[in-house]
From TrEMBL, chain A:
Presence of keyword Metal-binding: yes
Region described as Disordered: 158-197, 242-272
Chain coiled-coil ranges: none
Source domain of life: Eukaryota
Protein's name in the database: RNA polymerase II transcription factor B subunit 3
Keywords assigned by UniProt, alphabetized: Metal-binding, Nucleus, Zinc, Zinc-finger
Pfam families cross-referenced by the UniProt entry: MAT1, zf-C3HC4_5
Gene3D superfamilies, A to Z: Zinc/RING finger domain, C3HC4 (zinc finger)
Sequence ranges assigned to domain RING-type in this UniProt record: 23-65
Cellular compartments annotated: Nucleus
Keyword Zinc-finger: yes
From TrEMBL, chain B:
Ranges where the record places region Disordered: 356-379
Membrane-crossing residue ranges in chain numbering: none
A Pfam family matched in the record: Pkinase
Lineage of origin: Eukaryota, Fungi, Dikarya, Ascomycota, Pezizomycotina
Matching InterPro entries: CDK, CDK7, Kinase-like_dom_sf, Prot_kinase_dom, Protein_kinase_ATP_BS, Ser/Thr_kinase_AS
CDD domains: STKc_CDK7
Coiled-coil segments on the chain, per record: none
Signal peptide residue numbers: none
The name this protein goes by in its record: Protein kinase domain-containing protein
Binding site residues for ATP: K98
Catalytic activity entry: L-seryl-[protein] + ATP = O-phospho-L-seryl-[protein] + ADP + H(+); L-threonyl-[protein] + ATP = O-phospho-L-threonyl-[protein] + ADP + H(+)
Source taxon at top rank: Eukaryota
Alphabetical keyword list: ATP-binding, Kinase, Nucleotide-binding, Phosphoprotein, Serine/threonine-protein kinase, Transferase
Amino acid sequence: MSRKAVTSTVTQPSNATLPSDICPVCKRVRYLNTDMRFLINPECYHAMCSQCVDNIFKSGPAQCPYASCSKTLRLRGFREAWFGDLSVEREVDIRKRVAAVFNNTQDDFETLRDYNNYLQDVEDLTFALVSGTDDERRKAEARLVAYEEKNKADIDRNRKRGREVEAARKKREAEAEAASKARRLEEQREEEEARKEEAMLNREVMEALARGEAGEAAQIQQRIMAQKKKTIARLNGELFPRPWTAAPKRTGPTEDEEDRNKPYDPFGATDLDPTRYEIHETYENSWLDPARTRDDHRVPGYSVQEYVTRAMFEAFAGLGVAIDEEKAGAQRAVGIAGAKHAAQANKTTGIISKTGGDVFG
Amino acid sequence: MAVSPLVDGLPNPAAKAVSSPLKNAASAQASSNGTPVPAVAPNATAAVQSAALDLSEQMNEDEKRKYIKGKKLGEGTYANVYLGQVRNDPSQLVAIKKIKINKEYTEGMSPDAVREIKHLQELDHPNIIKLHTVFSSKDQNLNLVLEFLPLGDLEILIKDTANVHYGVADTKAWMGMLTRAVWFCHENFVLHRDIKPNNLLIAADGEVKLADFGLARSFSDPYRPMTSNVITRWYRPPELLFGARHYSAAVDVWSVGLVFAELVMRAPYLAGNTELEQIELICKGVGTPTEENWPGVTKLPEYTIGNQITPVLGKDHYNALFGTVGNEGVDLLMKTLILDPRKRITARDMLKHPWWHKDPKPTRKKELPRKSGGEGGRK
């Protein structure tokens, strides 16, 4: 809402409802002008037909044609009213404007009480603007402008945040809508299929009857039905699960859905950070220094940290491995699996046994 | 001979005569991999040398008899892969990788096999292929019993543009599994050194598993050079192309970045035919490594760049090519393709990147696209 419109809310509109047939300014009637539209200007909420607006304001700002009104109006400010009752239109405009300025959310307050007090304040101010006396309205207006001036940064921030939340909500809704639409289509298709299948079965029965001898009609029908019963049962079960035939209903989401809704864990629920020691940023060691500085190591990215991490791992790899437990575990799982099991049980990570040094360079 | 009762009833007594160091080595691998040893150990040390060999053969035989070898699944440069079944539970399938006898290494095992066994037996993670056991068969062939992964590899999916369609959520799920595997390797001080889409196999349940540890090695000690001739060329980072001998886990991260790019483009991003061309492609597709963006790079032994210098490409370039993965995805990709390995993101930090939590959520593994027309899975 522009700054222009702001000052206007101070005035009370004189006529409460939008005229339906006769323009109060030029007295033209809808009977002769079927495409008549009534416009208002939020400066004073005085309604007039679009032709009057064109005629009076086309050449620039002019005074409102209502005898009692001294507002200067511009063509740009005119618009169609959303509500028939212009006092409602005005109240909504005011509320929009106040909400745009007082746009804090509950998260901005420490306690619920603070938030409620704030809401109360805002509502008092709004009420004063909407239906207060002239004096009250002027005061409220002054407070509003002062608040806006003072908290410009906060207001902008909240507005931005609000827009983001709104965008997220819209996206979510659109997604839900698309999903439900897809589901509906799928259901429709399945239903169609089931119907077709049943119709086909019926037709087959009829054809068989037509071909067969009269005396054996019942028999034929029985045979075909028995043959097809399974198909029908399957289709029914699949496509129209009925409470009395279907398996007991699960409560809550299915396992599959739960699996689907689980947040994605890029690490695959594996944590390999050492639990029994810490890796420091640097280790003082004169033997390692050349590897840090020499060009043939440094430039192609040789990482002393990787070496150090490994040295630490190997130094402490035996910690927390209890041979007795491992032996017992070996009955169930041998080899690597067993070692891993033992490793997990003892909170050591990764490789347990390291066999020999490197054979190949 | 009579010292150890275990020797009695050996299925093939003649084998005693041909026992060799190789057999010894192979069964030693097997024992560290889970064959029951304990009761035997003191006995073996007390026994004479020949008895110990017989014992190892006995153990090897036991291990071998647990599996039935089936049809051939494929042939690689240094191994054949067969389908296998567990004797006690034929519904359980395994892949048996039989290492070919390599003429270069007649008196020992080929280093690829050693690397593979050495590292796979230590790594146990859902996104890394599992090594069940190792045994040697007749002719002293080495057999690796691996997890059976029936659904092909990522390369098949990437290439089959006509039949396989996938989106960002699927890419994210695959990248997640790959990154976790690489992270786990690095946390356990193993460099994979051959990450590429066709080493990313897919299990029956859709889980991607990092395989082929034939070039893997553990992190090197300082002053101990490593070979720079590793990683398939298209996925090889600039430091290796420039002949670096001391490098870090960052080499694998570069490969992961290029797999990411390939998943999105459905074509290799930097596919050079020679090493020189590869360097050229990196200069054009990522940026020319210079002293500004990579201090010291000119001192690397095989530093060569064309005469044209491309500044490091910005976000716009990547957005145009990989924009479908979203802003965060492009950011992650760019961080994996940083020229200077010291500034390149680590696998751990990759997993901490906000991209994983942005929309869309990664597809669940059972809903991931699968290769078309493939034979049925395990179940």
